[in-house]
Amino acid sequence: MGKGRIEAFSDGVIAIIITIMVLELKVPEGFDLESLRPVGPVFCAYVLSFIYVGIYWNNHHHMFHTVQKVNGATLWANLHLLFWLSLLPAVTHWLGESHLAAWPTALYGVVLLMCAIAYFILAHVMVRHHGPDSTLARALGSDRKGKLSVAVYLAGAALAFVAPWISAALYALMAAIWLVPDRRIERVLTE
Question: Transmembrane region positions (predicted)?
């Protein structure tokens, strides 16, 4: 079957995720700069999560650009990814409101970990469907950044009970690493 519906559905779900996250931002109580202080942590968590959702949307778009068809396994793997992404608004708000308390910081890392695992599964389901010589398989290669992400999110979730600020720094570092454009797919498509 064609890929148009899965792309449109995914774009819609991701747009809703971003909308829910922004609706969690509250207007400050006062009208001076000091009134921004209480909403600062929630806003910082929102910015980090917005970046993550943007990274997943961008990579999802690029990945689907390499294929022409999908199968049932791809549909379910994609839903699996969207499920974990849909939890980002809840853990983002909890993280921001908690001021980096251990459990919210750890759970944020677990959701990021599960998003990374779900994306890995989706990519491998699509490679299995299109073959090891497919454009997608060549573009993904060994996927070092994907494997590094899993390790960093796991470490961040565990470190949340020791030093939550280190966890937050790891989550931000991983977002920064993924913000650097990944040209693997674009390079393979232009060959």
Answer: 9-27, 39-58, 70-94, 106-127, 148-180
